[in-house]
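Researcher: Here's a chain I'd like modeled. Treat it as a single chain, no partners, no ligands.
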Amino acid sequence: MGNSYAGQLKTTRFEEVLHNSIEASLQSSSLLPRPVFSQLYLEAEQQLSAPEGGSRVDNEEEEEEGEGGLEQNCPPNPYQMHPPPEGCCTTDGFCQAGKDLRLVSISSEPIDVPAGFLLVGAKSPSLPDHLLVCAVDKRFLPDDNGHNALLGFSGNCVGCGKKGFCYFTEFSNHINLKLTTQPKKQKHLKYYLVRNAQGALTKGPLICWKGSEFRSRQTPASTCSSSLFPPLESSGPLATFSSEPIPGTNPSVPMGAQQAGPASDHPSLTAAVGPAVFNGRDSTKHPQLVKNNLSAVPRPSALGILSNSGPPKKRHKGWSPESPSATDSGYPQGGGNRAKYESAGVSCMPQVGLVGPASVTLPVVASGEPVSVPDNLLKICKAKPVIFKGHGNFPYLCGNLNDVVVSPLLYTCYQNSQSISRAYEQYGASTIQPISEEMQLLLTVYYLVQLAADQVPLMEDLEQIFLRSWRESHLTEIRRYQQAPPQPCPPAPGAVAPVTSAQLPWLAGLAASSCNDSVHIIECTYSLAEGLSEMFRLLIEGKLAKTNYVVIICACRNAAIDSCIAVTGKYQARILSESLLTPAEYQKEVDYELVTGKVDSLGAFFSTLCPEGDIDILLDKFHQENQGHISSSLTASSVTKSASLDVGGVPVCTSYNLEPHCIRPFQLAVAQKLLSHVCSIADSSTQNLDLGSFEKVDFLICIPPSEVTYQQTLFHVWHSGVLLELGLEKEHMTKQRVEQYVLKLDAEAQTKFKSFLQNSFQNPHTLFVLIHDHAHWDLLSTVHNLYAQSDPSVGLVDRLLNCREVKEAANIVTLHVTSFPYALQTQHTLISPYNEIHWPASYSNGVDLYPENKKYFGLSEFIESTLSGHSLPLLRYDSSFEAMVTALGKRFPRLHSAVIRTFVLVQHYAAAMMAVSGLSQMKNYTSVETLEITQNLINSPKQCPCGHGLMVLLRVPCSPLAAVAYERLAHVRARLALEEHFEIILGNPSSGISVGKHFVKQLKMWQKIEDAEWRPQTYLELEGLPCILIFSGMDPHGESLPRSLRYCDLRLINSSCLVRTALEQELGLAAYFVSNEAPLEKGARNDSLESDAEKLSSTDNEDEELVTDGSTSEKRSPVKRERSCSHDSASSSLSSKASSSALCGESSAQPGGPSQGERARSPQPCGPSEESRAPGERQRLRANRGPPSAISRHSPGLAPQPDCSLKTSQRSIQVSVTSLSSQLSSSGSSSSCTVPAASTLVLQAPQCSMTKACQQPPIVFLPKLVYDMVTSTDSSGLPKAASLLPSHSVMWASSFRPLLSKTMTSTEQSLYYRQWTVPRPSHMDYGNRAEGRVDSFHPRRLLLSGPPQIGKTGAYLQFLSILSRMLIRLTEVDVYDEEEININFREESDWHYVQLSDPWPDLELFKKLPFDYIIHDPKYEDASLICSHHQSIKSEDRGMSRKPEDLYVRRHTARMRLSKYAAYNTYHHCEQCHQYMGFHPRYQLYESTLHAFAFSYSMLGEEIQLHFIIPKSKEHHFVFSQPGGQLESMRLPLVTDKSHECIKSPTFTPTTGRHEHGLFNLYHAMDGASHLHVLVVKEYEMAIYKKYWPNHIMLVLPSIFNSAGVGAAHFLIKELSYHNLELERNRQEELGIRPQDIWPFIVISDDSCVMWNVVDVDGGGERSREFSWSERNVSLKHIMQHIEASPNITHYALIGMRKWSSKAGSQEVREPFSRCHVHDFVVLNVDLTQNVQYNQNRFTCDDVDFNLRVHSAGLLLCRFNRFSVMKKQIAVGGHRSFHITSKVADNPMAIVPAQYICAPDSKHTFLAAPAQLLLEKFLQHHSHRFFPLSLKNHGHPVLSVDCYLNLGSQISVCYVSSRPHSLNISCSDFLFSGLLLYLCDSFVGAGFLKKFHFLKGATLCVICQDRNSLRQTVVRLELEDEWQFRLRDEFQTANAKEDRPLFFLTGRHI
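Model: Modeled as a single isolated chain. Structure tokens:
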């Protein structure tokens, strides 16, 4: 029946309804389909054969196949075109009205295009070079991805203006296409037409039809996702059937002509077939996906969908956009159609021709008669059979289609496994054959046979079975391909006898014969229709009651087979059919059942269960009887409670303590990891984050729209103090202020987010951290969401966090935080794997990395608790509950199981409440588990003087059902008068918490809250409140639960919707911290606190329960724990507590029974049934405390007997603590000791439930299906749940992938998901196509993942704090802040520089100032004092010397904010100084050249060869003989130059060991002024300095100075500068410039000078003693220009400045200039100091030594007191580079300063250090050995001639110069206690020394280069006249001869 006028539907009723509904839908403005319409077309999904019989052929279908490459097999019938009406125009390119339609003719004409229409170009076969212009309704055209085109056509003719063409056939006739094949819009509408800049119509992009290319035979039908939801890209509800007839239609009317049109006509059918259901036991892991080798577009390639997932052949223009699966609202809200059929539009007419030896390709046609589905099928079978289409053709179904579900899942699975071999095609011609159809079917039968009665088939298992089977059969070929290069002629595969189609039914029957008829095989001779009819007959007759699966095989069709498999087991069929619903459909289904009252029958059934008729009548009766009694008993209990409170004025309960907010070691470690990742982004060369440019941190936390999560996050932010620490808020902030920093992603989010963006734009120097918490929640793409406009909250995360502004803002870092990161780890992710931070494991190789007093209890620990050897299985299921649900499922087959489960569970809770309240007859109507929960809930407050209780979490995902549960439980509670005992709270994401006044009052009292308005807003604030929390919402949104949570009841989670994220997020609700050291209670003996595993085994079994009367006592030998510190804090096993279990043995043989572990969270011991939370913690049983519960076993055969569970309730049981403790610790198992009831009585205080709160995690109840899933593991030990599809929004990239492994770390898991998952089109990352390429990652995006409830919020808030601190730290520096020393010893002179306001020193005044010999620099605190004749120093004035190692540690520093004029090290990057640093915009190093520079120096007796490294950019500072030639000199300016933009003095900075940390970047310090800066480095460090400072000039010292100290550098700088001055004078003299006009100054600066300050003085008049001053930061340029502008500057030899100190007083800055020592930063006149040299041998104090020599030469030293330099504390390099070690390699001994000298020729250990260094260090620490009289004798200093050596702080020295005409102090008054002659030269003569007077017994020390010169010196200076020498008084430094030691001679004054 083609799409021509010929085929007419014969059913008039059908056509009438169809036309009516089409007209209605066209007139409707809504996009949603009309109810009738969707019933007819969305639901039915079945094909009818024409009344003539089932053998007709569908031309269109065949033609489609022809296009797929099969024309040779089935040539299409020629298309019969109807003759045009008489008189019409038939010219090509014109319409029948004669108007020109060719694009070339009408491109510039105005064309009227109605709203919603587009102009497209049609191709005519007769005019190949022309496009014909048409106007087509855009709803019938596809989007860019080939999706969402409505079936059918609606178009207008642009030529004659005729409108309303509803059929493309009709339209193609009108525009004269003259086709020989059936007209199809996909084939002939080719291009969109667009107007160019000139307004002319031109050919635009191709129309993206995606139809026929998918049809080729050998490709799998679709990309399959077998997640537990049908993958819904743009698809919503897949068509379902209603189980009730809908008014106006007749469901039994035969529906659905053959599916029309190519797949592309389907609006976005989901490519993925519906999901499988997971089953716990031996199922395999993953949903598998196979990529379609033509395209990965997730669209169906529907070859012909047997059910009508589209309209009939005659398409109508009103066909709504939401055909079978467009969006979530695919069927009407009222909910007519419900049964699911054919989960998506995947081809259900599977291929006939498969790659195989005997494959014959046939057209896909349905054969045979239609199969009628019996009318009362559901009623008889109690479940809708699910029919999986298998191989070959599938017959039409008609009749009662509501009662069956047809799914293509299995077909797709077969297809996928057929395509496995494609993975090996790269190895050459493929000889590896896919697994045969017969083998596939046989394996399927084997698989079904071995499934247990409570298991559900999983497509993933089947795929794995096929994969394994195929791999084993081709193992040798696979290995050959993997190892060898491809061969041109691959060898033939080994002969394996294949299963033939004739053998198949027999083999399948043989396989099924062993399974007790759970699998039934039906063999057909002609077609599957026979088998299906037979199956329906058997079902109606009840002959398949025990059968779960029916396999129908038809093996007669030309050696190919047809097959299908029907699931008829009630349990399996229900779960499979429900698993085909999406979450949205599931909610709608439940809503529908509640709204229409379908559940009333269920409620009625329950109310009659009661022994006395109606439960409500019983409740009312109870209420009336007990009203008076209850109220009086309540009052009594409240009186006693208040009495216990009032005795001490405070509650007696000590267990209730709210934890202080402190940061845990783990959180700190994670925060630091986050910080280091941010730093590494900043450090990378990509310049994506410039941390140096940010001054502060701001943040916004985005969370899902849950009110509780919102309040919880506000609470965390408030209490973390992060806002104060970041400086964002002041001390007294309000709640409203905190709310600015947390964004709830709801309808109002957009405005708040806009202001955040605006804020970030306006504050470029603030780093904004955008934190996306719970980041796995809303990953919908805005682009692919049809309803983005109508529902603004959908795709909000994508719209806000992925907007261009966020991506491009250089000051926004995005941090995604989630416990389930899998959906963000796909092939298209935006997050680089290097930017993922995973929560660290607590143990590594057995070492506890972050010791904490709490242990996290997460999913893996819960699973571990179910293993044998753990006495408390914390994960359980409730077998009696499951049994009741199954039974009711059969009784009410039309109700969704979620509804049934909820009603059963609510009934159980209601019955348990009644039983606990005294209606003991109700105990039989609840399960043991529920009874125990309820007992503990109601009794827990009675155990505590304050009434603390436990929380029961009841998870009801579906909100309407949660409301029903809340109302029912609240009603029962009210009738039982329990309102004051416990609260029932309905937790809904969209609303806050509502708690009754009575309980609010209690909470306020417990938490000591005064605020009258206070109400709990988070679940954490319900700590200790006895309550049932009914937690609704499809997903938890990160809400934290209090420690008083004891039971986590997840029995209602949607067990058919299993993906890893959903499952882990539900189980994450129970995640918990347990205390590592459980506190001992009073009364418990602590003699049994054992921690090793063997001892612990004795406490394993101590938590048994009373076994019900009549059950046998079971013993179990103790099983050693797997770890000593087990999940339930057994390490602190309190085995001395009494064990009730001792009464009747051990009940925990079945793991998972409630017996053991219930109390895992149960706080209080209530009644014998109560279980303690830790195996080591024994419960105490008090008399008359409620009934013990029975043991429920989890083995299928042992059902609990609830009726006997209360027999012992009247017993009074008290167990002796002391008598048992010894037995328990000695006996192997507590089950061996029994104690008669009430034998010994020990009085104990009741125990509060909160006591155990911190020691035991909650007990979790799961649906059986989920329990099996979670607790079963694969071969590697990986829980099966971890292998599920990670998230709804992703798909597997291929079914040919490795499995996850248990040993994988989080990082490896991430890489696995990044390789093997792809996002669905609805995922926000879908468009990020650059797979795996680095440039597809966003540079400033991070992902933090960690287990639920582990403290990620605290960690990221801590990260914000330390990030802020680091940014501040980047702008701060530690500078030395020390007071000047020796202030008291200042020269007492009448001379002061009295002109306080002088900017520069007055030369004449300055000359009159005396020189201050005293050292005031605090770094010389340990140096010898220099005496002058003015001082009178008392010996106690000098403090005790410090230990050498304290010198660095104890120096006082201050933290200072870097000013804009600071000097920087290599870590500073900013745009201004980029060029200065030599980093080219392209990041290539500047070129530089090496130049030798030699000059002779007489004192060294040789020519000195220096090397300059000069970057090209700095060559203008030098003079060369010719460009690139010999270096001649460094240019010097003139004294008379007055430039304001340059610094005249070249700056030299000697440095060692500080290539990274030295402050050589003077760009900002010089305020951008031109200056010449030379780094003076040692030869061996040249390369590293050049690498870090490519644009700096280097002066490289000769290699002989590699081990020299700073003296050598200073010496060479000064000598080089003087030599250069001479060269410049000669050079410029030729230019007519006088020599004295050349600038003679240089600056010698330390490499740690960081900032410079100036003091502004406000003198109140010249003579005023009072004056105020302030200090400010200035640039070095300012200071240098000021100094260089000094009048008569060339008369000063040395100019310096003060060292900064915060303690500097007016004393220091009052006088603007001093004549004293200068250090650290000196301006040196090389001309005046020509004859004064630095000592090139010195390591320490060389500046003091040089200062003294400059002064004695009569030169002026001037210190500008109002300038100061700040020196940064740098912990590396400098003088710390020198280490004194032994020359003997294997001598590990530490060397002390006393060992630095030795006697000559002795066998002393020689040291590897310069002799001069050893000398200086020895004298510093041990000079009292040479000068014993001088110790603390400051009135009698040591005379030091021509040098200053540091003799330690306790010895003073007096410096004199032997040079003629030198200035020396008058020594006539002094009696010296010693004489130091160091390398004295010829100026020192005998006569010179005779001027000085010495104490008797004074000592002499002469130091020379060798022993010979030592003797010559003694003789020359006639020392023996006054000094006595002994042979043993000769010493040397501890150097080997080749190291040229220094020699000493000591003597005594006679």
